[in-house]
Nodulation protein S
Amino acid sequence: MSVDNTYQSLERELANDDPWRLDDNPFERERHTQLLRLSLSSGAVSNGLEIGCAAGAFTEKLAPHCKRLTVIDVMPRAIGRACQRTKRWSHISWAATDILQFSAAELFDLIVVAEVLYYLEDLTRMRTAIDNMVKMLAPGGHLVFGSARDATCRRWGHVAGAETVITILTEALTEVERVQCQGQSADEDCLLARFRNPERSSIRPNGRA
């Protein structure tokens, strides 16, 4: 699927009141419940990053548990809807950009990226996005990933899905937990995984850790 076609498809979907049925679908509610549980496995979040907010359904759940939360999405309309939904909180920062371009001065102790990476055109861009996320993850921090499976994503016209991305992520991070969420339709089958960025040993002046 080309970038232009992807943008057009997302624009059409975001025009609906509940795009992707994130609020009223039992499968999506369970997916968000598990995403939140994985995200909060180490307690409250000092500095979090959510990549791809859609209409803000998960942002609304995550925000109360973060001291600071940065939210990015490639679609300005998604940012607008999510910002409106979470306007009661003042600790959220927003950016209409994609993970290939985004950078931050500070590291994040939590990064959440769900149902996003399969929109990238090819594996090279997926690897670039993953490398960028890993660079922004603090030592000891956690990355929570979710996606439809490879077979489902390819049926939708994408290059790859959960299994492929998890394999790439484990090249740099340690997988801690994996959860499968499955609904009633063939499209409702995804994997969620939590990864930890290994602590880097501090080096003393004498060269000893």
The helical segments are 3-14, 26-39, 57-62, 76-85, 123-136, 150-155, 162-169. The longest strand covers residues 137-148. The chain has one domain: 3-197.
